[in-house]
LPXTG-motif cell wall anchor domain-containing protein (Brevibacterium siliguriense), 643 residues
Amino acid sequence: MQKKLVQSSLAISAAAALGLSGALVASPAMADNAPQKLDLQSEAHVQKALSGVEGVNAYGTEGGELSIGVAKKTDEIKKLEEKYQNIKVTEGIKELKPYAKNDLVGGAGYLVKAGESGGACSTGFSGWDGDGKPVVLTAGHCSKIINEQTNEFEGDTIVDQTEKPSISQANGGEGFQASGNGVIGKWGFHKFGGDLLEGAESDKWPAPSASDIDFAVINVDESKYNVKNGITDWTTADSDDLAKSTTEITEVGEHKAGAISKSGRTTGKTEGEVLPRSEYDFDYQNVGGRWVHGFGVTAPIDKPFSQPGDSGGGVYQGSTAVGVISGGGDLDANTSFTWVADLDHSLEQSGTDFNLEKPGEETPEAPAAPKAEDQTIEPKGQVKGKAAAGAEVKVDWKQAAGAQAGSSADAQAATEGSETVKADEDGNFSLEGPEAEGKYAYTATAIVDGQESKTTEFDVTVEKDESETPAPVEREISVDPKEIAASDFVKEDKGVTITVKGFDEGEKVTLEVANGPEGVEGIELDETANENGAAAFSIYGTSAENPEAYLGKYDVEVTGANDTEDESALTGSFEVVADEDGSGGGSGGDDGNADGGSGDGNGDGGSDLPRTGAELTGLAAGAGLLLVGGTAVVLTMRRKNSN
């Protein structure tokens, strides 16, 4: 069945455009609540299926499936999709507008009446004002009847019709022939420069002002013309429809040094160079006896940037509108010169609210492209990336040229594919990678509210992990020192360090003083195992005035939150003893680690641990407080999770 494109641009619904009626047709054998299969045997069934469904901008049938294109899924579309198993809905398919010869774009010619005579100018840029009304921007002097001898204003011109493109001078004709599409509209804001610069003595001329602009707005009669974003390149002038081939304009901005383009009814599309400030350091130019704010553009004398009649024509760089043609002449024997009224300045000074998209109908901004680095995974491992939170991410892949797939038929068939996944609230997305080893070229595109992002390319290498799994690390505990003089125990930079290893990364590790002097039993302290499965605790006394209060043996037990029934607590002990000579001092730690290390020589020594922590209850009346604290030390091994 031949696919058809549905256009609802003529103020009629999609259903009316199709001329559809009737109800959805399905097999009566299907359960009421189960997804049904839509009968697509004839065009009539398709028409019945789409009857009354709003927002359908395209449709087609192939292989027993009805494909529907919509700008955005409505609740009605979602229900239809849920009810029928052979309906595929694609978002982001916009309503298309038909080309029309009354589409008004930038760079077109238009006529003006000045009493019994008249002239022609060029449109700059088409768009909408703040109220959504269509407007055209052009040069202010096109709105004035100017005495050729005195440069005085003698009134305002009247906006007439567009000029017929096929006979415009830009297309090799003589021009000045009306298109027959009717009067464009009426002048809105319009201004040409400031006070007249009279007399030969320029030092007596009025000083230029920021409001000296050559700028005008035409309020378009929307019953006769459609304004359309873009500026014509004049390649379709023979068809009298300049809107068929345009450069899209996406923003209004400040001009930059370098290449610049213009479109107008006399010379069509032309190229030039912005005159650098180092060569022409002026913001104002005398145009027709009045100051005009703007900038200069040069071009070869045999290929001028503008000529009479191009006034008001749109000047742009890339997709940015930067000005309208104000005036021109020859800079020297080899160079033509054009003065451009800068658009950003003119809009600001005139207070004009100009929009390149109709307010309320702006296309949602495209989402940012997904981020994904080249990555290596094991067969069927997770391919990962980031995108906008909640975005649908379409991921495609195929094996890189020259790469070898696996030998099995399944592996051969899995060398390319496509999958759409959803990014979580943090923007993370993942999907299962290929099973066959090799290198794959991946692309990822984010879709938000029917708008697609740019595509991100990255490579995924699939290879088996041939490295041996390390044996589980045995849990160990180190107490340093095992015996300490009371006078050292009450010093903040000394005390006892208890280091453990063999736990899981991030596991909660708990130390408990199981036995000790009165008032100590039951004290607990928690730490978190570091990335190497290690944790450390430090204990010291705070009552330096009464160190003898800490004398005695302390038994500690260390357990992990992930312990199984088969795992026993790590145990250790230390003893606080009386000073022999009254000067303090203690013995080395167990396992020969007198330097306070963890016992494997791969980490920072326990003596380097800061003595920090929370104060707990005292040992006995007047005995002071026992301060317990902990921090992780860097080790190289951790135990394998027995769970």
Q: What stands out?
A: Confidence is low (pLDDT under 50) at residues 1-32, 406-410, 583-643. Residues 24-96 form one domain. Residues 75-83 form the longest helix (9 residues). The helical segments are 14-18, 43-50, 75-83, 343-350, 409-413, 486-489.
